[in-house]
Design goal:
5 strands; alpha+beta; five-stranded antiparallel β-sheet
Length: 172
């Protein structure tokens, strides 16, 4: 009886090549626990592992995870601070250095949070927040948003009379 040869079927589908796993480059809690379990499984029964050493290593792991969490929280706080500062610049006269090194001044009209560093839109041009060189005081005749340097110098709007020398006219 004649037999037909079997033709190999081409590999089609999700895995044409076996998946490879990249080696872990950082030590974390999962790696520590894996090492600890391996060490406990392979220890010599006549001389077991010192419990003080195990507690010390567990404490170090907890400290490492706490520091990692604090670092993440700190980075998030810094990002939020940058966003708040960028938002406060809207309506202000800001200065930045152009590509030729000259100081350019313009009005910040909006902010974009699309990237890792907020982009302040100054006269239609996107300027990264970390390239803003300064905030300028509004000229005396200009009307501002109420957030200029004059307000920060101690002006009061609570009716205490601290801003009376700036108003014109007498008492009503």
């Amino acid at each position: 009886m004649p037999t037909d040869s079997v033709t190999p079927v081409a590999a089609t589908g999700m895995y044409t090549t076996p998946p490879t796993r990249a080696p872990k480059q950082t030590m974390d809690g999962e790696m520590f626990m894996h090492l600890l379990v391996t060490q406990l499984q392979n220890q010599d029964p006549s001389s077991p592992m010192d419990t003080n050493q195990m507690i010390s290593q567990s404490t170090q792991l907890a400290m490492m995870e706490s520091i990692s969490t604090m670092t993440t929280t700190s980075e998030e706080n810094f990002s939020l601070q940058m966003r708040a500062v960028a938002a406060a610049l809207v309506g202000q006269q800001v200065s930045y250095h152009g590509q030729d090194g000259s100081l350019i001044t313009g009005t910040a009209t909006s902010v974009s949070y699309a990237g890792p560093v907020p982009q302040v839109i100054v006269d239609g041009k996107e300027i990264p927040l970390d390239l803003i060189a300064g905030i300028n005081a509004a000229a005396p005749g200009e009307s501002g948003t109420g957030q200029g340097t004059d307000d920060a110098a101690g002006a009061s709007s609570d009716g205490s009379g601290a801003d009376a020398p700036r108003t014109s006219g007498g008492a009503a």
